[in-house]
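quick q for whoever's on today - can somebody do inverse folding on this one?? i tried earlier but teh output was garbage lol. tokens:
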């Protein structure tokens, strides 16, 4: 057993400990003040990669807590994705792929509007279902941007949803009214993307 006296902290170590103690006290105070518990609306928007990936990360987290999840994909529908293949394995997940592809691929506005409105009917039903704890409306912002679905209908349904239900809405160009309503908004900003260097979409990364 060592009988050596512990070394006295240096002045730099003491200052660091003091700073961390102050920071911990501030963080603990903010956590203690956050007492409200209810469902939240998250909007993931911007031109950068990762909006849908973030939403599906929350799906995995919700499943870890034994929650039921509903997913509606508004645009992506012409190719299979890894997240669809994975999450369809779980009976707790209701998964709807309702889109018919990106607008520049379909080149048919009426068809896009019909698909988006059909997807919205499914989404609205999930937003009324108290048994569904998390609803992910993937690429809904794009349908709103092109006026395939009225933003007023979305805001009304989100406001009227069960109090405990969480909602995640993804896609570029989130309308200001939806941003104002949201509890959490993340704007993904592109810095660099492999596609710009001629690298095609990769399984496990984009697909």
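ok took a stab at it. sequence:
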């Amino acid at each position: 057993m060592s009988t050596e006296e512990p070394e006295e902290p240096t002045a730099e170590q003491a200052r660091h400990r003091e700073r961390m103690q102050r920071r911990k006290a501030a963080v603990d105070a903010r956590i203690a003040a956050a007492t409200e518990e209810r469902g939240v609306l998250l909007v993931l928007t911007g031109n950068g990669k990762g909006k849908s990936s973030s939403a599906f990360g929350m799906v995995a987290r919700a499943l870890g807590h034994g929650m039921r999840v509903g997913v509606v994909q508004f645009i992506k529908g012409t190719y299979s994705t890894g997240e669809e293949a994975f999450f369809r394995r779980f009976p707790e997940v209701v998964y709807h792929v309702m889109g018919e592809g990106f607008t520049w691929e379909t080149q048919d506005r009426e068809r896009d509007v019909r698909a988006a409105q059909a997807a919205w009917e499914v989404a609205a039903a999930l937003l009324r279902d108290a048994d569904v704890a998390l609803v992910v409306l993937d690429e809904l912002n794009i349908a709103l941007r092109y006026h395939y679905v009225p933003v007023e209908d979305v805001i009304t349904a989100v406001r009227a949803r069960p109090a405990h239900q969480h909602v995640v809405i993804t896609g570029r160009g989130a309308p200001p009214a939806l941003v104002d309503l949201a509890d959490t908004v993340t704007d993904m900003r592109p810095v660099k993307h492999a596609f710009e260097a001629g690298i095609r979409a990769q399984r496990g990364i984009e697909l």
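fwiw The two ends are 58 Å apart (CA to CA). also The mean pLDDT is 89. so keep that in mind when u check it
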